[in-house]
Amino acid sequence: MQTIIEIYIIILITMSALAIGSGRYLIAKKLYHLFSYILLIFGLIIWYKFSSENHTIKLIKLFGFYEILLEKIAVIFILIFSLLLPFTVTYALGYFNLLPEVNEAKFFFWLTASIIITFFLALAKDLFQTYIFYELLTLSTFPLVRIGKTNEERKASIYYLYFLLISSIIFFLPTIAYFYVQLGTLNFQNGGILDLTKINDFQAKFIFVILLLGIAKAAVFPVHSWLVKAMAAHAPVSALLHAVAVVKAGVIVIFKISVYTYGYKKLGDKNLQEYGQIIVLISIFIVSILAALQSSLKKLLAYSTINNLSICLLAIFLANKTSFDAALLQIFAHSSAKITLFFCVGYFGLIYQAKNINDIQGMFYQEKLIAFCFILASFSIIAIPSFLGYYSKDLIRHSINDFSGSLILKNATYLTLVFSTMLSYFYYGKMLVKLFMKKISPWNVRSKEASNFMHYAIILSTIIFCFGFIKL
Amino acid sequence: MASNFLIVSFILTAILPIFSFLISKKNLLGIYAACISCFIVVVIFYIYRDNTESYVFGNFPSFSGIEFKFSYIQNLSIIIICAISIFSIIIAPNIYRKPKIILLLMLNIFGVVGLISTNDLFNAYVFIEISSICFYALLSVGTNKEVTKAALDSLIMGTVAATFFLLSVFLLYNASGSLNIKVISENIMMQNKIVIFAYIFLLFAILIKLGLASAHQWILHNYIHGNQLVNILSIASTSLGWIILYYKIFANIFSKLELGLLADALLALNSIILGVLALKTKDMYKIIAYSTMSTASIVVIFINSGIPEWIIFALLINDAITKVLLFSLFSSGLIDKKFWIYPSILLILNVIGIPPLFGFFIKFESVILAINARSYIGIIALVFSSAISVIYFFNALMVKDANNN
Hints:
The structure holds two protein chains of two kinds. By secondary structure, chain A is an all-alpha fold.
């Protein structure tokens, strides 16, 4: 296993070198593309090997000096971005071909850097390493948000940087320091390190709320606004980073803290997540309403992402055996469907200058394949049976049944989830109806050259969530 | 006996340039570099020996004799200050490499090093004056009217600060009958109300010198109108010198004083107000000034709460070196070249305390030690000022970047 992970890292480093060369040499760009698919294979091998070893948690020393913690959450996360990175690269090759003003080499370099950092963040063996990679992820994605160098992107990138850095400095860092002083260690351990004789119940509950604010990458209301602003970035950036790597990194950090710092059993038995769960429910409620009010396609997707991230967190906070798997499946299902939606919206925006819901009116008749993929991805997000999104939501429903907390919180969780699903039917339905309506004015079409790569990427990403009925 | 070498080399750093200046007025830069280098070598030797050296002039008892003390941390600070002074003269434009200016620079460093190493309070006041007078003279170099005004402002405020310091020394002498820090700490009665007033005067002195939220304009003028040489000295030597002096006095004399939260709360408020004021500007010189003042307040809180000496100086030294380099990048015009944006980003991230840079580890450690010392006000001030510094530093950098583009 150690060798496979080392090879995975070497491939990533090679990719970053190729990315630098891709601006000058075509062969470097082609090799970069090829390596991204090789990475996918290694991502699958890591997942397969880990599954065949019965998901045993273990510390591994990489290259003889750097220790990582191999466990289920990290492996699933690595699987997710290994699967989706090559599609993003394929999509970006087509997308940036139509935008010669964007520095493609810079994009690929920072994309790879972000993935390397995400990889180490997922495998961090303690909270200290987690914090270091968490901050580095913010810095490495900052140039991606402003890759187009438009004024809007510049402003969005600054907001992005300020928001994520400040929230982590104010809330996340002091919490880690507090844990260290009280518990004497920051290591992730099976069963958790939390000692309730040193940190009392109330403090533990309160710290959870502070962590939710500090780990703003998980984009829980009210620390969600950076994600909406970051939508000014180009579609490939929004797709991989703001639907998968960055936001899911936030969720994964909270997940790991719940399982390996608090201890999942302790969390469930003592209801230490109670306050956090209330915040997440409020977040789902408010963000669902905000999503329904949006007319911009990307902003709607952003709010939908925030909503789904909160649902992932909700699943984590239910803290029972079913909820653990439900949360992982929800992360996987949402990532694969949302990246497809971003790909489609990016395609509509680039080729047809469609930015708002009204702009995609009649798109089905113009772009049947892309519109079809868009519809399928929407079905997965709103949990139509046979799509992956349905199975994850169904598992969450089961885990609410097993929830051991107060009855009021249990009922509130049910109601909020139903409310959110109803509203997601509404706002996704609004978009889908528009696709089938007849367009009156003529299309303002940009050159469709070199968009084949975009088609392939959209189809490939669609395949993943369409086969949700196959049990992994 | 061993400490004689140290004290002789220290005195030579002041005497040699004066004689050279009087005799030849040429090649003073070489003598300056040689003196400082020799001094650094001697100090490094003492750091290597890893012990505290104490020297009493003429072997008089400490009541009347002047005691100098060179501890590990003080030696390290002396090296940093000397190195920065050499750096400042190397990067200064040719017009500042005149014998008179170098002599002033040398005496300024002599004053600051004396301030750091002396254990006698009145002697400290003398060194304050030596370094300050040289500083005002250095500041007034130039043809600009504003420079003269800034020097005059500095003179007035510096004198006010020194007067408060002298008042504090007077009260301590009154209460203990000595000027030696060690003897004062042994003789003084903490119940004596004079001690509280002595502390208040000392706090005023240091706050005026390092930046009080309501009276900081003169420091801003220094940074805006002063030359590069003076500002680099100001960032490094003034802050380090005064804070080390404060540390020595507080740790030995006032640490047993029950101050309550008032002093810390005021200092934290001072730091936060300075941080907020920095948000209003996009001028990097002003921002560095505000940030340095804000950090000084936080460091004083940490000293008051008794967190270990090494972390206080690590915080100070990291801050000083990073800001000197940042200031140099901006004042030398290198920042106008696109490449130099990247090193300046690294420096800014280091000041803010973003991993994996050195500044992060120092801030993380200081938060841990502050939690242990229950200095929650200090933590709030540190965290808030770090968070707010993200905004003001990047605001200034983005303006520069936009101009470059």
